[in-house]
Amino acid sequence: xxxxxxxxxxxxxxxxxxxxxxxxxxxxxxxxxxxxxxxxxxxxxxxxxxxxxxxxxxxxxxxxxxxxxxxxxxxxxxxxxxxxxxxxxxxxxxxxxxxxxxxxxxxxxxxxxxxxxxxxxxxxxxxxxxxxxxxxxxxxxxxxxxxxxxxxxxxxxxxxxxxxxxxxxxxxxxxxxxxxxxxxxxxxxxxxxxxxxxxxxxxxxxxxxxxxxxxxxxxxxxxxxxxxxxxxxxxxxxxxxxxxxxxxxxxxxxxxxxxxxxxxxxxxxxxxxxxxxxxxxxxxxxxx
Length: 288
Fold this sequence. Notes:
The chain has 9 helices and 14 strands. 32% of the residues are buried. 28% of the residues lie in helices and 32% in strands. The protein is an alpha+beta fold. Strand 2 and strand 3 form a beta hairpin. The chain has one domain.
């Protein structure tokens, strides 16, 4: 793992995205209803969901370019990837178990973008250790409470001959679909230079991350998700690895308020940005 080109500064960021007539993140424990804060009615999108979008975009855009493979992907068998690490020359040459684990961890960080970015637990088979990723994100929460709309849908077909017999000539199959008419969501992110040094997360990786966050919905369209777009990506770049100001104070400089109700588009909101930054902090507006 090379130490060249590693990030040396802390970054914090605010991500704004919206959904129109779609389900941004269904809850499998609630019949795939849009995730909600039960007490306030605000919509939620998990950090796992957002990281999945990043992984998917990098997988598509990099096409398994060396160093940008994805560890956690659809139909992946994780232990097979860990076994591959243990079959590498850099691991085989080690004699002690601790040294083998460390060499395997380094191999995995070098090969997989999502491991050196988000981290991973790699002790489910042969031990490749655990990695705490430098990039972490919060749940996204809607600016205002959202309404979950329920829709009846029909499919003009049946799956089996038995179903066709039961329908007696009518091959319509009824179903349900849940959407949010409109919601503007906000998530916060944190990037640690100290943890980046442990995983090998570089400035090149950082640029790939920014691109993925900007474009993660471009190839993610589906009937379930409706229209989803990134509306803001505001990056606070510190001049030091430890940082020059608390993250919460920087996040408070991005204020989002509703100007029309009920909100049905991004134009119904106003984003106000306080451009005055503490010493050693620069605001970079990637989107918005």
